[in-house]
Amino acid sequence: MENPDTKTTRSPPPQEPNLKKLKMSTTTTSDDDETTTTDSTKKQRYKRRKVAIFFAYCGVGYQGMQKNPGAKTIEGDLEEALYLSNAVPEQDRNNPKRYDWARSARTDKGVSAVGQVVSGRFYVDPPGFVDRLNSNLSPQIRIFGYKRVTASFNAKKFCDRRRYVYLIPVFALDPSAHRDRGSVLASLGSDKEFVKCLECSERGRKVGGLMGKRNYELRGTSFELDISSNTNESVVDSEFNEETKVFPDNAGGDDSKSEPRNEISTSSNNNVVSGVEVENSEETDLNSEPLNDTTKVSVGEENANGEEKPEKESGSEFCYGEKEKDRFNRILNCYEGTHNFHNFTTRTKAADPAAQRYIISFNANTAVTVGGLDFVKCEVVGQSFMLHQIRKMIGLAVAIFRNCAPESLLEIALQKDVNINVPTAPEVGLYLDECFFASYNQKWGDSHEELSMKDYEQEAEDFKMKHIYPHIASTELKEGVVGLWLHSLNHRNYPDLCAAAAAADSNGNTSNGESVDVGNVAGEKSCSPVSFIV
After folding, report:
1. Low complexity compositional bias: what residue ranges (predicted)?
2. 242: helix, coil or strand?
3. Which pTM was predicted?
4. FRET pair for 148, CA 20 to 30 Å: which of 65, 492, 516, 531?
5. 164 known member of a binding site
6. Among all residues, which ones are annotated catalytic?
7. Position 292 in a domain
8. For 213-237, what is the mean pLDDT?
9. Confidence of residue 264 (pLDDT cuts 50, 70, 90)
């Protein structure tokens, strides 16, 4: 009786704990399992974070912001840099939907940006995410920083408004500068004769297509500029380390080998340009008398010594003074509010709800001097913009200011039942200045960082002075893009301007730029509603 009892009590206790200890010991003492656990903990530590990335870029040489197969775009280079920086895994490469990619604004070909924002879920750890991105990007694209956002954040949907800036040369607003051939011939023998631009005629022969067909190649050359503004009366020196080289469609490569160098001296009081020197072996006539009268423009009426400025040889004394500023702002202010902008874009019909856009403000109160050229800084703020909308708004405003069309044509162009061919200004002077997220900051300001450019103001200003402004000035100096475009503002290319001007002349003169009701006059000559169709 005792033997079976002792066997049952002795055997189970030593076996069960021994088996458990053996299992425990085999799992903990394995070196291979330790590495896998450490690797798994690293993956858990570096989680994807929903962030908003602030950056800037110079649009020269790019086919716009949005990614397009077969084209060099800003978005394509940025996505590749995110992958090379280990912010995007291999399985998500070239598939932005997998990491919630969104952009605040799309820019056209050649258009730059200072305050662009994109959002997505990226691996931002370990520290140094911004430096890793910049190391995999060209100097034309600079990442300023990033901020954590909510999981539902979308850079496009949460952007309340966008601010764009267009730098238009002051000479573009001079009605007597860069006139078309017909106007020059018609002015012969009159009290005010227009001067033919020999430089623009020569450029027009060299450049095939003129607009939108330029190829760029960046070189490492030095281009020194002085940039000053008539608002803060400060001068900023900057060095421009890139050269824009042009290869026209029907021209040889020798026409674009020269490198301009500008030496500018400005007064500290009213930004009077006292001298421009261009060293150019093949295009020395760039600053000859006809063009020099339009490029050397002074905002003030007197020089630093208080003496009156000497009269220019050709008699052109145009400057962007208070009278000109008030008139140009009056024209731009007509765009403010909610309107149908189907005439200011392409592939959008008047009945499409997308043609309705809201413009918050549009003004041109500041003039800046870059590389010896004076520019008017046109700032427009709106909820969103369509393709070519801002460039067409600037184009029509300049045509009206130059008396190529009456001011009432702008109101007609905003009507839903009117079709008008509106001039499109060159893309080189346009850049995205900032994107705003007021509603998001108001709702999530207590728990998340504010989304704005306040933390990157200095970096954005430095990028603007180093890349964007010098590119705009050097392109105009070497190619005369705006000058060539001004010659196209004639009634042969834009018959609608001719019809409006003829209607205005039948109702009253518009030489002083006063507004004339073209709609009523044109309505008497054609069936209602008024329609200018090309």
Report:
1. 267-278
2. coil
3. 0.70
4. 65
5. yes
6. 108
7. no
8. 42
9. very low
